[in-house]
Amino acid sequence: MKKQIALALAAAMSVGMLAGCGGGAASSTAGAASEAASTGSSGGSGSLTISWWGGDSRHAAYQEAIKAFTEETGVTVEPSYGAWSGWEEAKSTALAAGQGEDVMQVNWNWLYQYSGEGQSFADLNEFADIIDLSQFPQSALDACTVAGELQAIPVAMTGRTFYWNMNTYKAAGIETAPASYEDLIAAGKAFQEKLGDEYYPLCVGPYDRMIMMTFWLESNYGKAWVENKTCNYTVEEITEGMNFIKSLEDNHVIPTMENYYGAGFDSIDKSTQWIDGQYAGIFEWDSSANKYNDALADNSGFTVGEEIKWGDKANGGFAKVSMGLAITETCKDKESAAKLINFLLNEEKGASIMGTECGMVSSAAGQAAAEAAGKVKPLVKQANDIVMGFVDFQLDPDYESSKLKGSDGIYTDAFDGFSYGDYTAEEAAEILLDGVNGVLASA
Amino acid sequence: MSAPAKSQPVTRTPFKRWCDENTGLFFLIPWIIGFLVFKAYPFASSLFYSFTDMNFFKGIHQYGIMNYISIFTDRKTTTALMITFKYAFITVPLKLVFALFIAYILNFKIKFVNLFRTVYYIPSILGGSVAIAVLWRALFKDTGIINTLLGFFGIQGPNWLADRNWALFVICLLRVWQFGSAMVLFLAALKGVPADLYEAATIDGASKTKQFFSITVPMITPVIFYNLVTQIAQAFQEFNGPYIITQGGPRNATTLVALLVYNYAFQSNEMGMACALAWVMFVIVMILTIIAFTSQKHWVYYSD
User: Fold this and answer.
1) Cβ separation of B162 and A11 shorter than 8 Å?
2) So what's the ipTM on this one?
3) Are A261 and B249 inside 8 Å of each other by CB?
4) Chain segment A92-125, per-residue pLDDT in tens
5) List of domains in chain A
């Protein structure tokens, strides 16, 4: 008898456990269905999930905007958000497992890297009756069209420019922000002589070096870094670019990579060197202006710098889609997801809350709403105007492939190896070119 | 008077008999399901994927041993393997010696001994956490507390996090600092050494050092052996320290195999390569464990 009771209990436990595996989904579906019924959402679940990366102010803006969306539509939106560090790894794994959020803030290259055949994100052309695509520049929409499908709505266009801490420059006896290579070299000498070895006019990490070298090459040779899946540069030309970076190190314009890593910071804006003014310049995305301004202990000298024209063949440099909003293929209620995207980017209420938290918005209606609400941050607009008025090349999406810009990627290997003295300029250029060609070939 | 009724023979159906004999299996079902789904299947599938060029988003296009060839010919992986061996051979002995040394001291009857035991054990609880790794970076950055302290003595500290040799030392130090769990096991073992052995040795005139090496160490060799095997396995799987403190840098000087597996799997989505590298790591740990087990008959003393 005892055995039979034990057997029954064990069987009940097993059944309970198995039921537990599937029961959650069933009950949540039922819950969602009743919610949908109560909200009147046609054919949808009445609830969505959304994910984004960013800083505190972006988190706050998104949360306020999705609250307003819920109030307006009755569709609940569950957010998940965090800092950029480790975000791509987590989200790419989620996408691969079919566990991506319904609406995802995506980096531009994700469309090519994780949905090259349209397998991860929905074609938003199918929701053109919900999302007003006419508000976006066609070139930006084209950039987000992969495998013939519009896989994301471009939130903003972005590019790199310089930000200077003029308080430190003035302490070094320099009154105007650098506008040329010669100015930078002179600043390096002045910083070292008047302020000491730990003061630098500019600080750039390995990926920043790659972008800066690309600007330099494009300006000096008048051709894009990559066109039609082919790198336009030879080893000899890239070697010159490498030597340009080395000249900045040698003239105390930028810290060596050994000094950079020795400082032990996560990102430059969180370093005491930037906060206290020892690093007096950075080369960053236009959307980051406020982040770097706010980080300074004394930001009275923070200045958005003009782009530097390194050569005479072209301005050089590139703009790219900074990020997009995409709907995953696994989303059960794509119509509501499309409404959410339109709300955040095009509609007056949503766009005025979002402002320029994700950069200068691409949507004409969104930008007008943000301006009317006084939510356009002047520094971001200033930086964006400078970048967009200067750069003359588009970026190839594979430029940001994780195989190239990852922590153990090709860019890090080439620029760190060169700075540490492991490679000559030619060797570093060869490694870089081989790596880029490898990624382009496998794309 | 009627005769007492004869009891009826118990007849059981084959199914009922099978159920009676295998009741235990039903209790094990939850565990078996968990084992099959979360252990056996990933284990077997990772072996399969290690012979493919599996990519999360591109699928499988090639089968063969190309990943294993790459592992033993590619500079990045061979360097990671060498650094991992170096890391294990530095940290495992240092941690064991340090843990035994502290346990030996804490085995004496001293004031506040329980407080000291707790304090020394705390790093083992906190050691693997992100917060400690961040603290470690703050301690060892070029303007950090360590170099500031060295500066008081007129010593110019090295660039700990950016110098290839010192960066690995910083990562090793974090692991050695987490000696608490090994220490607790040693402490328990030390308490189990019979006091009469020490009394006899003292009567015979043996010094404390002689007693330690001739009585204490042989008596606790089973625990030394256990700690050795577990510490080797843990050292080869170290991930948190290099990931958070140095991200494998500078110049891959702290890229241990576990970090490289992560990079292959989640940064560049080369799941086939990640699986192959994980299997190589598994085989290495298994070989070292077999060596340890084979050698124990020569140096491990089981009193019973």
Assistant:
1) no
2) 0.81
3) yes
4) 999 999 999 999 999 999 999 999 999 999 999 9
5) 43-157+321-379 (3.40.190.10), 159-319+386-442 (3.40.190.10)
